[in-house]
Amino acid sequence: MTKQNVVMQEELAVAVPTSAAIAEPSPCFSYPPPRAAGSGTNYTRYTKLSCRLDLASCGGGGRAANSWIESMKALSPTQAKSAAPREVPSLASREEEEYDSWMMLHPSALDNFEEVMTAAKGKQIVMFLDYDGTLSPIVDDPDRAFMSDEMREAVREVASHFPTAIVSGRCTEKVSSFVKLSELHYAGSHGMDIKGPNNGPKHPKAMAQNVLFQPASEFLPMIHEVYKSLVETTKSIPGSRVENNKFCLSVHFRCVDEKKWCLLAEKVRSVIMDYPKLRLTHGRKVLEIRPTIKWDKGKALEFLLESLGFDGCHDVFPFYIGDDRTDEDAFKVLRDRGQGLGILVTKIAKETNASFSLREPAEVLKFLRRLEEWKQSSQDGEAQ
Ligand SMILES: O=P(O)(O)OC[C@H]1O[C@H](O[C@H]2O[C@H](CO)[C@@H](O)[C@H](O)[C@H]2O)[C@H](O)[C@@H](O)[C@@H]1O
């Protein structure tokens, strides 16, 4: 079988406006907010956090391996700043400064709620929500990443007003068992396993009935085979964990000693180099293996809009809220369509196609509650 060099070049660029550009912060933002890098905004300096996922060179150590490890650390917003070594006391404040600058371009969806809703007013809202890091906080054990009852209630309320879908890297069965709301659409396995609510949508304008779409079904046997190999190959690395997400796999290293990250990556590489039809990406302390088909969360969003009967409708306003790289595909679709709004959940500056931001799942909860209140009050207004 053809061997492939498993190299993913990914870069995370944090664009930092100069002090001149941030001297006069504007208290409110128009919709859409300023475009990110490369679109004629006030960027004059870039801080590049290299995110080269170069597994081929990992085993050999050296600079490439170090840079890969550094990029994985940089990608982890859950890093405890208080645990930073004493000799780099300025790191936290530098990150905060960068975040403040970044917020100029990706303002808080909560602080600017009225502006956001002005853009959505009169349009059919459709809500797309990522799960991990968005509805549930990031925790060490992926099997215990539960969402709170308050969050469930907020999602339930929002879904009673607007068609709502959960879009996750997890398999549909698992994420739906966490969310426990049968009235939602679920797009698991990074959008490769789409299911509509069994009893069809409650929303008068939405059409989709009993949707089931699995564009990567031919990969099931291969994924299962690779899952077994990965479990076997990585079992000697304490803390590592392979999660079977049906049409894709996750190899977790959140609980692996940093000194063993490269060894783990090398072991993953040794397995998947024999499968040129699989690709490797990385998320929040996780390596993700999935089919090379041109399908992602962005395609899933488009598919769901179409199956809901909203394709080509200009009076539809999709919100997509997510925290991870895989959510960028969906943010990009919204940006390219010039429709709706992407909201990135993050505590650190990241290059993104999202327009607005929220800091953490607790803010997502507040945002969903405000959306529900907004809908309630606009209904009350209509009734008067
Ligand atoms: O698309 P998502 O719903 O955000 O899923 C992406 C991955 O999320 C999960 O892993 C992440 O959350 C875990 C629990 O908090 C955490 O332990 C892990 O480090 C994170 O990467 C999930 O377990 C993966 O399978 C998903 O691919």
UniProtKB/TrEMBL annotation:
The record's listing under CDD domains reads:
HAD_TPP
User: Main EC class of this protein?
Assistant: hydrolase
Pathway info: Glycan biosynthesis; trehalose biosynthesis
Q: One biological-process term from Gene Ontology?
A: trehalose biosynthetic process
The cross-references to InterPro entries, in alphabetical order and at most eight, read: HAD-like_sf (IPR036412), HAD-SF_hydro_IIB (IPR006379), HAD_sf (IPR023214), OTSB-like (IPR044651), Trehalose_PPase (IPR003337)
- EC number(s) reported in the record: 3.1.3.12
The UniProt catalytic activity note for this protein reads: alpha,alpha-trehalose 6-phosphate + H2O = alpha,alpha-trehalose + phosphate
- Asked if the keyword Aminoacyl-tRNA synthetase belongs to this entry, the reply reads no
Q: Name one GO molecular function term.
A: trehalose-phosphatase activity
Give UniProt keywords alphabetically.
Hydrolase
Q: Which cofactor does it need?
A: a divalent metal cation
**What family, per the record?**
Belongs to the trehalose phosphatase family.
Entries under PANTHER family matching the protein: TREHALOSE 6-PHOSPHATE PHOSPHATASE, TREHALOSE-PHOSPHATE PHOSPHATASE C-RELATED
Record function comment: Removes the phosphate from trehalose 6-phosphate to produce free trehalose.
Indicate what this protein is called per its UniProt record: Trehalose 6-phosphate phosphatase
